[in-house]
Amino acid sequence: MILVVGATGHLGSLVVRELARQGHPVRAMVRPPDPARDLVKAGAELISADLLLPETLDDALRGVRAVVATASVIAPARRGENDEGLVRGYATLIDRARAAGVQRVVHASVPETPLDDGVPMVRGKREVEQLLADSGISYATVRMPPFPEVWLALAGSSIPVRGEPRAIVTRSYPFLRRFRRLTGTTVERRGLMLVPGSASIRNAFLSVHDAARLMAALVDATDISGAVDIGGPEVLTWTDVARLFGQVIGRPVRVLTTPVGVYTAGQRALARLAPSASNVLGLHRVLGTAETPWDTSEVTRRLGVHPLRTVEQVLREKAALPAD
Fold first, then answer.
1. Quick one: DSSP state of residue 41?
2. 253: Cβ–Cβ under 8 A, 6 or more apart, which residues?
3. What residues contact residue 148 under an 8 Å CB cut-off, 6+ apart?
4. Quick one: pLDDT band at residue 77, thresholds 50, 70, 90?
């Protein structure tokens, strides 16, 4: 049995589906009131548990040989949820997983950047990585670059989230809802792609669907351990992405950049009033500062996950789907 923590999220739900597709017994950890009927239909067993409620974790871990951990609070479902609480929850989960005889943990993380300590979500990822390193359990923490289905939507397009029923950017989180109302279709309507920092920032964009395949493959790839960087099949600048958008929608698209300092100021101003919104702005700050110009094809070949989707493939697949 493989337990997926964060199973109702964007990445986690895709991991559940991929593991079930491969024939693995998979248990999806969910919190009411989400009925997660789509995951049951995909072949998952459901368990009602919560990282923030330690007494619920032992039942979730019973009979489990591996845990795939994707839970985050980027777009919190409940008021008051934060990264400090999430780290405490992960600490309890790891302790109880070790006691339950769990043999492997695969953890979804983000690239290292000079800003790690200044962004709570990223800092929390590093703390969980350290907890895993100290646990004695075999683990892989997967540091992944931007997902086009997430960040190209936040850049001003509705196309990347088509066919993504659990997309993080469409959650009923007030800050993201308001942000999307203002910017959700600027690419299609005005030919403008909104990005933080320089248009020349380079990233090895990785489709969230390929990320799920890679996370699933790492469950049994115990020869790969510790922190591992895994990116997509190509390295693109934001200018490159705008050109691809233009080819897909049939009109020129140009990049409109916002100085990173704007996100830094917003993050600091909202830190006490709206910590989750502050965190989102902090992630934009990271995206506008750090690069992931990686070639990780050797790792993906070892995992047997290939070919990976290019950004153009993702956009064309999504553009062919009906708009919501």
1. H
2. 187, 191, 192, 193, 242, 243, 245, 246
3. 160, 205, 206, 207, 208, 311, 314, 315
4. low
Nearest-angstrom CA–CA distance, 185 and 242? 14
For the question of whether the overall pTM of this predicted structure is more than 0.85, the answer is yes
Q: Do 321 and 161 meet the contact criterion of CB atoms below 8 Å apart?
A: no
Mean pLDDT of 112-119: 93
Let me know the angle formed at the C-alpha of 70 by 88 and 287, rounded to the nearest 5 degrees. 95
What are the start-end ranges of the E strands in 182-324? Answer: 192-196, 202-203, 226-229, 236-237, 254-258
CA distances from 124 to 27, 118, 289 (A): 25, 11, 19
Strands 66-69 and 2-5: parallel
Query: 250: phi > 0 → left, psi -120 to 50 → alpha, else beta; which?
Result: left
Question: Is the pLDDT confidence value at 279 over 90?
Answer: no
Mean pLDDT for 132-155 is 97
* Cα–Cα distance measured from residue 302 to residue 235, given in angstroms and rounded to the nearest whole number: 20
Neighbours of 8 (CB within 10 A): 22
Residue 76 in this model has a pLDDT that exceeds 70: no
Comparing 16-20, 84-88, 226-230, which segment has the lowest mean pLDDT?
A: 84-88
Question: Taken in order 95, 99, 104, 106, is the CA torsion positive or negative?
Answer: negative
The dihedrals phi and psi of 142, each to the nearest 5 degrees, come to -100, 110
Nearest to 208 by CA among 105, 322, 72: 72
Residue with tokens 């239909």: 41
β-strand partners of 227: 141
